[in-house]
Amino acid sequence: MYLEGHTHIQAKLPGCANLDTITPELAGTIRFWMKNRGIPEKALEIEGAFIKHARENLKALSLGQEWQDQFEEVLSFLSERKI
Fold first, then answer.
1. DSSP state, 13?
2. Between 34 and which of 11, 39, 58, 75 could a Cys-Cys bridge form, CB atoms 3.0 to 4.6 Å apart?
3. Hey, where are the domains in the chain?
4. Residues 6 or more apart whose Cβ sits within 8 Å of residue 56
5. 0.85 exceeded by pTM
6. Cα 54 to Cα 76: distance, rounded to the nearest angstrom
7. Rounded CA separation 81/73 (Å)
């Protein structure tokens, strides 16, 4: 994890080897750090572009309707997911 310059977070992540030990307090600190840098919005923007391109590629393929429906269902599920 790259958190240089953020010693308050680094101090709570010694070695970052075992992420199973992240406490709710630490998760809140990390969430706050990410939100202040606009990371969730950037991730949603990238994810949206990816899904849009995937949907365009899917429409360009000559798939049987049964496969087209299944892929479209997966893309719909992904586009509804919240980060």
1. S
2. 39
3. 7-37, 40-80
4. none
5. no
6. 11
7. 13
